[in-house]
Give the backbone structure.
Amino acid sequence: MLWSAGILIIAGIIVWFELPALWKQQQKKDLWAFCILLVIAVGFSIPVLLFPHFPSPLLVLTIIFKPIIDFLIAIGLIS
């Protein structure tokens, strides 16, 4: 639980330094991208710490692309 608080504190420090600069320069798209990516990063980091067997986000890509690769192998486009 202490590690989760550490991640939140580090995320807060990052926001403390980056957010005002983006807001001052009127970079709305960059601000949105920064916030969304930070939330995703913190959202993936905390469950990994709390649940050691939390599945990797790459598992989703494997599930999506495995049938496509198998199909391409079956029709002979890749070996």
In short: Residues 2-54 form one domain. DSSP finds three helices and no strands in the chain. The two ends are 47 Å apart (CA to CA).
